[in-house]
Structure formats: C-alpha cells, structure tokens
Amino acid sequence: MDADWLPEPEVVPFVKAHAFSGRLITWFGWGEYALWHFEPDLRISMDGRRETIYSNETLNNHLRFYFDQPGGRAYARSLVADFVWL
C-alpha cells in the first residue's frame, strides 16, 4: 500500500490505548481502514463503498463537509460525531 495516501499509523494505537468509542467522521478513502481497526467501538461515517451502499445525498453531504462548502459543518453536526479524523 502506498503510504502517501494512508492515514497516520500512530492513530490506531492511540485510539485503542484511549478506548475511543462513539461516532467517527472520516475521509471515505480511510473508512475501510477505520472499519478494520475500530469497529464496533467506533461507528464510521463513510467508507470506500460510497457509490454502492450510501445514497447520493449522503455522499454529497460528506463532500460538502470535506471541502468546507455551504451546509458541510451543519451536516457534520447532524451526525453527532464524537471524533473527526481527516
């Protein structure tokens, strides 16, 4: 795997050591990585299956949040996330 696009490797041991639980907003490219390491303790907002299991509305809402477009922050608040990892 190309380390240039992977999330910081220090996050997984940190999250596990501090027993994070709740909801996590993450970049969809890291979602499956997060699922692998954190489920069921953390619920992941989006993963790489974005075009197959998520609605267009959900995908567009995430994109608005990721790129700080109008409505993006309100969407993030509506997810009642405990953590954001971008």
How would you characterize this protein structure?
The protein is an alpha/beta fold and 86 residues long. It has helices spanning 11-17, 28-38, 50-53, 56-66, 72-78; strands at 22-26, 42-44, 83-85. It is 47% helix and 13% strand. The protein has a 3-stranded parallel sheet with strand order 2-1-3. The chain is globular.
Attribute tags:
3 strands, 86 residues, three-stranded parallel β-sheet, alpha/beta
Content-based structural category: alpha/beta
Strand content: 5-15%
* Spatial strand arrangement across the major sheet: 2-1-3
**Principal-axes shape call:** globular
The CA-CA distance between the termini, in Å, is 19 Å
The average pLDDT value, as a whole number, equals: 90
Helix content: 40-55%
Please tally the helical runs, counting DSSP H or I stretches of 4 or more residues: 5
H/E element sequence: HEHEHHHE
The biggest beta sheet reads: 3 strands, parallel
Query: How many β-strands, per DSSP?
Result: 3
Cα-atom radius of gyration: 13 Å
- Low-pLDDT sequence parts: none
Brief rundown of the structure:
The chain is of the alpha/beta class and 86 residues long.
Structural topology:
Blueprint: H1 11-17, E1 22-26, H2 28-38, E2 42-44, H3 50-53, H4 56-66, H5 72-78, E3 83-85
Helix pairs in contact: 4-5
